[in-house]
């Protein structure tokens, strides 16, 4: 699919439930920009298993700093903050990559 075709699907109001939940089987992307693009991304819930598995991965990644603190007894908040920032940057970068795919 071309970017123009994906943009047409994304702009179609029938593919948005309550203006916030994207559901379009014709759109192969798992992650798409929200209706107001600068507010972030959302998942294409037309593929429920893929969306749920991505949510689980995000939750596991978000719990990584807590796991590090418990296992390594790291009480340094700087280490935990840096870990959280790295995880957030990786997730945001991955979402940006997924939302830009046109295949």
Description:
The chain contains four helices and four strands, in the order H-E-E-E-E-H-H-H. It is mainly α and 103 residues long. The chain has one domain (3-100). Helix 3 (64-72) runs antiparallel to helix 4. The longest helix is centred in the last third of the chain and has 24 residues, at 77-100.
SSE order and pairing:
Layout: H1 3-11, E1 16-17, E2 21-22, E3 31-33, E4 41-43, H2 48-62, H3 64-72, H4 77-100
Antiparallel strand pairs: 1-2, 3-4
Helix pairs in contact: 3-4
Question: Quick one: biggest sheet?
Answer: 2 strands, antiparallel
How many separate domains?
1
Distance between the termini: 6 Å
Radius of gyration: 17 Å
Low-pLDDT residue spans? none
Structural class: mainly alpha
Query: Helical amount among residues, as a percent range?
Result: 55-70%
Side by side, the strands of the main sheet go 1-2
Q: With helices defined by DSSP (H or I, 4 residues minimum), what is the helix count?
A: 4
Number of strands: 4
Per DSSP, what share of the residues sits in E-state strands of 2 or more residues?
Answer: 5-15%
Give the averaged pLDDT, no decimals.
81
In N-to-C order, the SSE pattern is HEEEEHHH
What does the overall shape look like? elongated
